[in-house]
Amino acid sequence: MHGTFSDMYTYGTMQAFQQFTGINTVMYYSPTIVQMAGFTSNRLALLLSLVVAAMNASGTIVGIYLIDRCGRRRLALTSLAGVVLSLVILATAFILQSSSSLCGSLFSGSCQGVLGWFAVGGLALYIAFFSPGMGPVPWAVNSEIYPEAYRGMCGGMSATVNWISNLIVAQTFLSIVGWVGTGPTFLIIAGIAVLAFIFVALYVPETKGLSFEEVDLLWKERAWGSQGSHESLLGAAP
C-alpha cells in the first residue's frame, strides 16, 4: 500500500505538471495569443489556431510511435527540454514587442511584424515538442503503474488532478497576463517546465518493456529503499 501511495503521488504530480506547463493555455487561448502577437485579423488568428490544433493531433500520433521506442522517461525529458526552449522564445518575443526601444534597436523596419511571427514560431515549436512527449506520456504511464487492486481508483484520482489543474490554468491565464504581462507569464510557465524536468529526472522511473508485475515490484523497492533489484529491472528494459 505504501508503494501505491508513492505511485499516486509521483504520477498525480506528473499529471499536474502536464497542465501547468501550459498545453491547454495554448489550446484554449491560441487565437487570443496570436492576436496578442500582433495579428489583428480574426480570420488569420483562427487559421493559425487551427494549424496549432492540427500540429497537436499530428504530434500525438508521432508520440504513439515513439513511446515504446524511446521510452516514457526519455521522451518526457526531451519534450520538457523543448517546451522550456519554446516558452523562452515565446516570452522573449512578447517582451521585446512590448518595449519599443528594444524592438527598434534589434530590428529595422516593422519589428512588430517580425516579432509576431517569432512568437507564432515559438508557439509552433512548443506544440511540436509537447505533443509527442508530455501529451501522451502521463496518460500512458498512468494506465500501467498501479497495482491491479488499486488501478481504477488511483488512475481516476490522477485524472482528477489533471482536470483540476486544467481548470486552474484555464481560469487564471488571462488574469496573470493582465497582472504581469504576456512575456513574463510565459516565463513563469517556462519556470514550471524546468521544475517538471527536474521532477521527472529525479522521481519518474523508466517502465518501458516492463510487465505490470515488474512495475509493481519496482515501486515497492523504491518505496522501501531496496535498490539492487530496481537496478536490474531498469537494466532489463529494452
TrEMBL record:
<dbReference type="GO" id="GO:0016020">
    <property type="term" value="C:membrane"/>
</dbReference>
<dbReference type="InterPro" id="IPR036259">
    <property type="entry name" value="MFS_trans_sf"/>
</dbReference>
<dbReference type="InterPro" id="IPR020846">
    <property type="entry name" value="MFS_dom"/>
</dbReference>
<dbReference type="GO" id="GO:0022857">
    <property type="term" value="F:transmembrane transporter activity"/>
</dbReference>
<feature type="domain" description="Major facilitator superfamily (MFS) profile">
    <location>
        <begin position="1"/>
        <end position="208"/>
    </location>
</feature>
<feature type="transmembrane region" description="Helical">
    <location>
        <begin position="44"/>
        <end position="67"/>
    </location>
</feature>
<feature type="transmembrane region" description="Helical">
    <location>
        <begin position="116"/>
        <end position="141"/>
    </location>
</feature>
<protein>
    <recommendedName>
        <fullName>Major facilitator superfamily (MFS) profile domain-containing protein</fullName>
    </recommendedName>
</protein>
<keyword id="KW-0812">Transmembrane</keyword>
<dbReference type="Pfam" id="PF00083">
    <property type="entry name" value="Sugar_tr"/>
</dbReference>
<dbReference type="InterPro" id="IPR050814">
    <property type="entry name" value="Myo-inositol_Transporter"/>
</dbReference>
<keyword id="KW-1133">Transmembrane helix</keyword>
<feature type="transmembrane region" description="Helical">
    <location>
        <begin position="74"/>
        <end position="96"/>
    </location>
</feature>
<keyword id="KW-0472">Membrane</keyword>
<dbReference type="InterPro" id="IPR003663">
    <property type="entry name" value="Sugar/inositol_transpt"/>
</dbReference>
<dbReference type="InterPro" id="IPR005828">
    <property type="entry name" value="MFS_sugar_transport-like"/>
</dbReference>
<feature type="transmembrane region" description="Helical">
    <location>
        <begin position="186"/>
        <end position="204"/>
    </location>
</feature>
<feature type="transmembrane region" description="Helical">
    <location>
        <begin position="161"/>
        <end position="180"/>
    </location>
</feature>
<keyword id="KW-0813">Transport</keyword>
